Amino acid sequence: MKLNSKIYQWFGTVLLYAAVSALTVVAVAQEGEGEDCDDGNPCTYDTYIPDFGCIHSDNFCSDDDFCTDDKCDPATGDCLHTSKDCDDSDPCTIDSCNPLIGCVHVSLCDDENACTEDTCDPITQGCSSTPVDCDDGDPDTVDTCDPETGCVHTPVCDDDNACTEGTYNPDLSACEYTPIDCNDADICTVDECDPEVGCTHMLISCDDYDTCTTDICDTASGCIHAPVVCNDGNACTDDICNAITGCVFTPRTCDDENACTEDTCDPASGCTHAPIVCDDGNACTEDTCDTATGCVFTPVDCDDGDPNTEDACDPASGDCVHTPISVPHPADINVNWKVNISEAIGYLSGWQQGSNPIGYAIRAAFIWQNGEGYFYDSTESAPQCWQILTTT
Question: Other CB atoms closer than 10 Å to residue 353's CB: what's the count?
Answer without folding.
Answer: 8
